[in-house]
Amino acid sequence: ENVVVRGISIERNQAKVTITNVPDKPGTASRIFTTLAEANVIIDVIVQNVSMSGTTDISFTMNGDELEKIGGMLDAVAREIGAGEVKRQKGVAKLSVVGIGMRSHSGVAAKLFECLGHGGVNIQMISTSEIKIAVILDEVKIESAARLAHEAFGLSADA
Amino acid sequence: ENVVVRGISIERNQAKVTITNVPDKPGTASRIFTTLAEANVIIDVIVQNVSMSGTTDISFTMNGDELEKIGGMLDAVAREIGAGEVKRQKGVAKLSVVGIGMRSHSGVAAKLFECLGHGGVNIQMISTSEIKIAVILDEVKIESAARLAHEAFGLSADA
Ligand SMILES: C[C@@H](O)[C@H](N)C(=O)O
Ligand SMILES: C[C@@H](O)[C@H](N)C(=O)O
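Above: the input record for the complex with threonine. Below: its predicted structure, written as tokens.
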């Protein structure tokens, strides 16, 4: 399959929110995101990995300036559904490799993770699709990460 | 922001692979995906959530028929990087809601999770972008999930 990397896009000033230990049964994710939708919270990436012993974490990212909009609404939902603590952290950024045909993208993902790894940039979250590989990392590393990614993919600085 | 849901796409016969307890420091993700890329393994979704106490799980999905291609290569990498056990499971499917402008998609995500929750379909993994909300679920539930999603989004059965 032809893989074409078109460019790197970054988004600064993001916050990550994690609802920990969400019971892994139908309906819990719905409660969380219905609450956010009703409050008109704009969210970006949603990530949930598999549960290991009946619970899992659900995280999402959003604009750091919007974080106050959430207030305590998720803490209330977390209690309602029997989840654990809600964690919030500002000062993260998203870097995405955008392309087409990345379904066979273990090579593209490998290249991105490798350049970041060699550059000492820690990857906090990963979420991918056929056209985008997105990683969340510490905002202080975003310029360095963008430079590393441009070099790794042979892109000019404005790609 | 105008959100337009264009359709539902499903992919059956998927497998999920999880490398558990991956040390959350630069370079570990790179080792895993470089190994997969060198073996020409085609992967679909990659999901990694935040680490809680220095380690996190990294999961990916792939065509169920390709699972044997992985053999023991990830177990070797896991040992090398100090990760935990590698888990594999066939019999999952991916359902995606495809659209545009889903950046403000807490509403679209909420609607998808809600119809699945009400229908008793458990969501095993979540990975999203502005144009796609993908969930991984048990393959035996995929027809039911697709029907529920089409109804929830007011789409004809072939959308
Ligand atoms: C954890 C959460 O996604 C749950 N499995 C649900 O289906 O709502
Ligand atoms: C866990 C893994 O993603 C690690 N943080 C890395 O950067 O490679």
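Notes for the reader.
DSSP finds four helices and six strands in chain A.
The first strand of chain A starts at residue 4 and ends at 23.
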